[in-house]
Model the fold of this input.
Amino acid sequence: MIDKKFPIDDAVFFELSEHTGESEIEHYLQPVLNGSDMGIISEAGLPAIADPGAMIVALAHRKGITVTPLSGPSSILLALISSGFNGQKFTFNGYLPIKPADRISKLRELEKRAAEGFTQIFMETPYRNQKMLESILKTCHSDTLLCIAADITLPTESIMTMSISEWKKDLPSLDDRLAIFLIQ
Done:
């Protein structure tokens, strides 16, 4: 959490996205090399987890800069601990393929791993969440358990775990919502 007394108007911000090239971020670390403190913040959870922050952290390590993690809420881990699924053995798969055939193939692979006892966690961009849910419901077996953790920590938060057959009876609207999907 940022101190409310922090002089935000005096701070310098650099944008880092999946489109930012490594050559572009080389100068981002100059303030640290000049003796200033620096941090990475993410608009969607923890920096470097399903986030391009890993790029700047790796560059900091290569330059010999000490990296100190400060934890905040991670939608991925919050979804896991609230799902009721195996937290001992799990895999975070990030974003699944966009192309329907590739996505279906990946879902089948994840469902197989889930049946072996490994909770499978993945996500999608808010504007494609409904399509992802439709793919899951069409692809996975009726007794596979699916947890949808949407809008974690927001007033509209919803975290529910049900079988695929139960989800088919009560289809939620996930359009423009932040969601994490877990299967077991």
Q: What stands out?
A: The helical segments are 22-25, 30-33, 53-62, 75-83, 100-115, 129-139, 164-169. Strands lie at 90-95, 119-123, 145-150, 158-163, 179-183. The mean pLDDT is 90. Residues 100-115 form the longest helix (16 residues).
